[in-house]
Amino acid sequence: MSSSKDRATPAALTLRNVTKHFNGAAGHVTAVEDISLDVREGEFLVLVGPSGCGKSTLLNLLAGLEHTDEGKIQLGEEPVRSPGRDRLVMFQQDALFPWLNALENVMFGLRLKPDLTEEERLEAARYYLTLVGLGDKEKARPHELSGGMRQRVALARSLAPNPRVLLMDEPFSALDALTRDQLYGDIQKIFMNRKKTIILVTHNIREAVCLGDRVVLLSPHPGRIQQIFDIKLPRPRRMNDPALATLAAEVTAALSSHLDSSKIS
Amino acid sequence: MKLHRSVIPTLLALLFVGGWEWFVRFGHVNEVLVPPPSHILSWFWESLRNGEILSATLVTMRRLLIGFAIGAALGIPLGALCARVRWVRDTLGVLALGLQTLPSVCWVPLALLWFGQQESAVLFVVVMGTVWAVVIAVQESVLSVHPLYLRAAMTMGSKGTHLWTHVIFPAALPGILSGMKQGWAFAWRSLMAAEIFVVILTGFGLGSLLHAGRELLRMDQVMGVMVVVVAVGLLADLIFFAPIERWLRRSRGLER
After folding, report:
1. Residues A192 and A142 both lie in one domain
2. CATH number of the domain enclosing B101
């Protein structure tokens, strides 16, 4: 083993002075500006902020679906230039392929890993479908599943190829509160068991505090890091935990104080 | 008691045909110009017995299938190319859009001059009638594939040929299919035009049969052939396109 890998928490993802502009109908917009951040291996990092803070842009940059204008992003030692299966994305909508059933959807990413045999792939796909509680639904088409079930299949599909980093773009925002609570539990269980590096984007501060090891608060126009919170609550955490509510209130206060001061200036 | 769905249409059809027969029989119109259904039926029966209608249908179907197959085989990759490459879309795509509106009969003079009174002339007209509709349909349906599918697939490591065969084409399939259906209808029209306008020495098709009916002043034959043409179109939809569409809709939850 090389000495760099012996360090306690090596950075899985490194962002250095990342800036991204867009030229849209509304003119020139700086979506994110000068973002520097280290995401540790096995860390659950949450990017939270109001709309327009560039959190989804940042996630797309990490996924390689967009390119930085300035600064650089590295996965380990490798610069991030294009999408790759070491960084899988779970989207706001489930993005399941309607022409494939649940099992085939999970198999999609696995089939793109040439080093596996077809049996190993099937085994992995079934394992992850069972892990998200849908072992009996493998033949179901996406339209035959509820929104929560679809998002679970999407979770299984993102986990099955065993990516180094799992990127989640507001995957719970389209779900009802009950289903969401269930999925918070599922995600935490999977996170604790598999020690995966997860980056979640959300506008829900309570959700951020519930799931994150660290919560990065972004401020809008342009998107900048405003403050980083370490969340030291024991896992598994529950949404209705009073300690969690206190921390969430702190983050909310930090956000609104920033929004107020920017309004005055 | 609930009537079967087919009862009302059948009754109406019988009423229509009966009314027509009655109207002509009682001398309201000239029987030569408007033959009664019974004459059409007897022509049909006779031409069925002497094999005329069957051989003409076979000749026409053969041309239709070959022309349609060539048109689709050219149109699908060209449409995909239009969707994929900007400058191809700006050139070939625009040309296809223009030529799609050109009635395929317009190709007949050129086809005759280039190929002579041969099968290839008919095929050329059919292909010209089919290919542009297919190009446009494929281009449009590929361009309207939801970007989320592409992003999801790309993050899972799909790209190039794999992306096309495993994501873009399956996602665009409903649109491609309706393009094929339109192409089929266009091919059918072009073929009739070609067969009516061009005396082909290599085979006597339905269009030629219809044209012969006109020259002999046999309107029962003309109308009989028209009925066959409509029936073939309906049957093609019923046994080929409709089942595929139904399967697509059902498997993707688009069934209404």
Report:
1. no
2. 1.10.3720.10
Report yes or no on A197 lying in a domain.
Answer: yes
Q: Does A91 contact B170 at a Cβ distance shorter than 8 Å?
A: no
How does pLDDT run across B96-126, given as a tens digit for each residue?
999 988 888 888 889 889 988 888 888 999 9
Q: Mutating which of B155, B177, B251 best tests the A interface, going by the most A Cβ atoms within 10 A?
A: B155
Give me the domain span that covers residue B85.
36-251
Residue A5 banded pLDDT, cuts 50, 70, 90 = very low
CA gap A30, A22 in Å, rounded: 6
DSSP type of residue A223: B
Token pair recorded at residue B237: 């939809």
Q: Is A112 in contact with B156 (Cβ distance < 8 A)?
A: yes
* Edge-to-edge strands, sheet with A78-79: A27-40, A11-24, A70-75, A78-79
A118 and A240 together in one domain: no
- Provide the domain count of chain B: 1
- Which amino acid makes up residue A5? K
Mean pLDDT of the region B181-191? 88
Does residue B19 lie within any of the structural domains? no
- State the residue for tokens 């399939």: B173
Is residue A231 located within the same domain as residue A212? yes
**A212 and A248 assigned to the same domain:** yes
Domain residues for A157? 94-162
Assess A114–B contact: CB distance below 8 Å, yes or no. no
Beta-carbon separation of A112 and B158 below 8 A:
yes
Q: Report the number of distinct structural domains present in chain A.
A: 2
Write out pLDDT tens, residues B207-223. 888 988 888 888 899 99
Q: Tell me if A38 sits within 8 A of A78, measured CB to CB.
A: no
Looking at residue B18, what is its pLDDT? 92
Interchain CB contacts (distance < 8 Å): A and B: 63
What ipTM was reported for this prediction? 0.81
